[in-house]
Amino acid sequence: MKQNQDKAADVQAAMSSVKEGLAGGVPLFTTKNWDDVSKLMAQHLLQVYTGAQSAKESLTTIQQQGARGQ
User: 47 with 58: CB under 8 angstroms?
Assistant: First the structure.
């Protein structure tokens, strides 16, 4: 494969960034029900965005339903 000399420096810089990130990276730990809570947030916060429900109501619902899923 022919190297594009104009992009070689960009690729090297990107590779250096990836290597640095992997060397000092910290894993993201989540709760057992994080996927369920994430889906509930997407569902209920859309209702907040459209004005169908208040943020307080939506977050209360998410907390209650998320707790049941644990």
Answer: yes
